[in-house]
Specification:
It is a single chain. With 510 residues, the chain is mainly alpha-helical. Helix content is 40%, strand content 10%. The strands form 3 sheets. Strands 2-1-3 form a 3-stranded antiparallel beta sheet, sandwiched between helices. Strands 5-4-6 form a 3-stranded antiparallel beta sheet. A hairpin with a 2-residue loop joins β8 and β9 (341-345). The chain is elongated, with a radius of gyration of 44 Å. InterPro entries: ArdA, ArdA_dom1, ArdA_dom3, ArdC_N, LPD15.
């Protein structure tokens, strides 16, 4: 059997600190005690409320006391004075458990609950008995018993419907316009939703007249997106392939990633161009986002209470300057308070997945210009060619390469061997200069004496019987190659010369 003095002795530190609340009750002739802590919002935890109701059922005269808030108690009192104070409260029914629960219970009165439940159901909304305050996290996937099972199911049906509506809303769309018709004062355009498909974009090109013959340029005149700030970083010359790339990345984001992406765009350290935003969508692990933090004071409290940076005793928290601490921490983080919460760059490696040039093949949707058929070069009328210079030529079959014949030396002394090799080389060079192949080479080179050796070789490879290169008018009339706006001439890409190697049987007497 424990006396009141012995029980108070065990809990005298809690009574003097004034942080915890200590319940005292009698069971038979024995005194008992137990301490409790309130939640951050000064409310009882559900399990503590149940425990206090159990204590009250054991001893209806039980009291719950705090050395800071209750009279006849104090931090400077001796053990005997504390014992006398507890006895005074118990015998005079001061600070009983019923009053304490009523003050710190976050449950609403039964009549208010039923009235609110009826109003919610009449409006077709789910109802929860627990009131959630601003900034308080709510986990809809945990059934805490504060809702009926029917309300819980209704809440999830409404969540799914809302999510479906959000998914049906276009992530990104742009008004694609025919630039040629736009400059002519005959605008033609159509809204395109991204991500899209190559087939759909081809149909849009056809409808707005981009045929790559008369009109082959386009631009975007407007963008729309439910993501705040996104369209501000897009330009009229944004490429459809890049927009489709970004649209696919955004389509794959979960809700948490989408919130962080929105905050990161506002943060702005990687949002100067479409290339930056594409890379940003793939580097969200480089940022920390605290959705419930929107001010310096809230950030300071989050660091101290949730992350325990620094770790403080409960008594010291009463005097701690949370706002100043949060301000200093946000400056050190180089962070920002956004509508989606507090965000800062955690200095993880930011990977440039997209270089701004090569969009991955799976995201390319822009139609390509059709390959134009080239007229037969033999039928092209050369601008400056004389009629006698153009004769019908028949394709010559490539000649078989000459076999490799090794030099067989008959001399024995080194000096004589060297002289024999030199004589053979002189003989081979003389034969080359007298050959028909060398005559053909000189003939070709003489036709294009104003051209470089490389260009002459290219011409000879493509048309051995060529006399003159096609002039500008021939390129325009016969090949449909015109000087583009802003250019000084047409660009012609010729193939590089190449050699064909063929393995030959070596003739070796040995």
């Amino acid at each position: 059997m424990a006396s009141l003095r012995d029980t108070v002795k065990d809990y005298q530190d809690e009574l003097r600190d004034g942080i915890a609340w200590v319940a005292f009750w009698k069971q038979g002739r024995s005194w008992n005690a137990e301490y409790f802590h309130l939640d951050m919002d000064d409310t009882l935890y559900p399990e503590d409320r149940s425990r206090l109701e159990e204590i009250k059922s054991t001893d209806p005269a039980a009291v719950i006391l705090n050395g800071y808030y209750c009279g006849h108690l104090g931090e400077d009192m001796s053990l005997d004075e504390l014992t006398a104070g507890v006895r005074y409260h118990y015998e005079n029914s001061m600070n009983d458990i019923d009053g304490f629960i009523g003050t710190h219970d976050d449950r609403l009165p039964p009549e208010v609950i039923e009235e609110a439940r009826a109003a919610a159901h009449e409006a077709g909304l789910p109802f929860s008995e627990k009131p959630y305050r601003d900034g308080e996290d709510f986990n809809p996937y945990v059934f805490d018993g504060r809702q009926s099972y029917e309300d819980y199911e209704l809440m999830h049906r409404m969540m799914n419907e809302e999510r479906s509506e959000q998914m049906a809303e276009p992530i990104l769309s742009g008004y694609l316009s025919n630039l040629g018709k736009y400059t002519e004062g005959r605008p033609a355009g159509e809204w395109v939703t991204f991500p899209t498909t190559a087939e759909h974009l081809k149909e849009v090109f056809d409808r707005i007249g981009i045929d790559f013959k008369h009109y082959e340029e386009w631009h975007f005149t407007e963008f729309q997106s439910p993501i705040p700030g996104l369209t501000e970083h897009l330009s009229e010359y944004s490429h459809p392939d890049e927009l489709n790339y970004l649209g696919k990345l955004l389509e794959m984001q979960f809700d948490d990633d989408r919130e962080k992406f929105i905050a990161a765009i506002e943060y702005g350290d990687h949002a100067d161009s479409l290339q930056d935003i594409i890379n940003l969508a793939q580097n969200l692990d480089c940022y920390w986002l605290y959705p419930s933090v929107h001010s310096e004071e809230e950030y300071g409290r989050y660091l101290v209470d949730e992350l325990e940076e620094p770790e403080l005793p409960e008594e010291a928290k009463k005097y701690f300057m949370y706002e100043e601490y949060g301000r200093d921490a946000s400056i050190n983080d180089d962070g920002m308070f956004t509508e989606k919460g507090y965000i800062y760059n955690n200095r993880n490696t930011f990977t440039e997945w997209y270089d701004g040039r090569d969009v991955p093949q799976e995201y390319r949707v822009t139609p390509q210009p059709p390959q134009r058929s080239r007229p037969d070069p033999e039928k092209v009328e050369m601008d400056a060619a004389a009629p006698g210079q153009r004769t019908a030529q028949t394709a010559e079959q490539p000649q078989e390469p000459r076999p490799v014949i090794p030099i067989v030396l008959t001399s024995e002394k080194p000096a004589e061997k060297l002289k024999e090799i030199t004589d053979r080389l002189e003989q081979g060079i003389a034969e080359l200069f007298d050959s028909e192949r060398y005559k053909e080479y000189l003939k070709v080179m003489s036709k294009f004496h104003n051209y470089s050796f490389r260009n002459t070789v290219l011409i000879a490879m493509q048309k051995p019987d060529a006399s003159l290169v096609a002039g500008f008018s021939a390129w325009k009339n016969n090949f449909e190659r015109n000087v583009m706006k802003g250019q000084k001439g047409i660009k012609i890409i010729a193939p590089s010369p190449y050699k064909i190697k063929q393995e030959m049987q070596k003739i070796d007497p040995h």
